[in-house]
TrEMBL record:
Protein's job: Catalyzes the transfer of a dimethylallyl group onto the adenine at position 37 in tRNAs that read codons beginning with uridine, leading to the formation of N6-(dimethylallyl)adenosine (i(6)A).
Keyword set, alphabetical order: ATP-binding, Magnesium, Nucleotide-binding, Transferase, tRNA processing
Protein name listed in UniProt: tRNA dimethylallyltransferase
UniProt-listed Gene3D superfamilies: 1.10.20.140, P-loop containing nucleotide triphosphate hydrolases (3.40.50.300)
Gene it is expressed from: miaA
Catalytic activity: adenosine(37) in tRNA + dimethylallyl diphosphate = N(6)-dimethylallyladenosine(37) in tRNA + diphosphate
GO terms classed as biological process: tRNA modification
Amino acid sequence: MKNLISVVGPTGIGKTKLAIDLAQHFNTEIVSCDSRQFFKEMKIGTAAPSEEELAAVQHHFIGNLSVEDYYSIGQYEEDALQKLDELFKNHDTVILVGGSMMYEKAVIEGLNDLPEASTENQERLHEMMEKEGIEKLQEILKDLDPEYFGIVDIYNHRRLLRAIDIIWQTGRKYSELIAVSQDTRDFNVIRIGIEAPREELYDRINRRVDVMMDKGLLDEVKGLENFKGLTALNTVGYTELFKYLDGEWDLEFAVSEIKKNSRRYAKRQLTWYRKADDIHYLQLGYSEKDFEELLQWIGGQCQK
């Protein structure tokens, strides 16, 4: 039996480093399930692995798409499973890493057989959004499915539209429908998380945003201004700076909003992971001894 070690946790907690440490120990490769890091034009704002990190271990699904490409979670599931099949030919263990909760779920469990989008529902929702803003969709979803509202990226209108549409079509909560695992996998999954006190995590997130600004996030966003209507760019770090470039906000306020929205996203990730009972946690700033103990624990979970 092959083993997939999935490294999970909120944004800014240090997943990339742990994934690389594990990949080097197992002499294997890394598959990313961070849906924001798929886009090559968004390196800084998504904290994509650096050139050095990419050189340290072979990564897959980092910067492999353009923001102009349409790419669904279903396509990712298919591509990621195909890549794992290839990698398992030469490796007993592969590392999966990323904080996009549904993308990890797609790989380790499979997506659910949900109905196709209803054109009528989508048009109705688009009309509502144009008249009353994304806040109207947030309000509808919160009322229909508070559980999913608690974990979804509430600024991603496509996710909101999809969830409300499915609830209207099926009469069931979206959170219930996606909770059912579809396919069994022919590999063993071992989930590793990193945790830290909330204040420490939030402080790391704030500092990371400052580092992104120092690295040239504003220039990266300026270069993407012509594409700001695309779904890939409807995300934290980009929407706030587009508002600065449009003259709606000053720069200091835009940066403070990136920090606030990043912390909110981390909170949603924590809510999602807290519901799982199969994640083995390592403390942030783990020592060599902690890592050795983790490897021993993984050894006990690996299936031959």
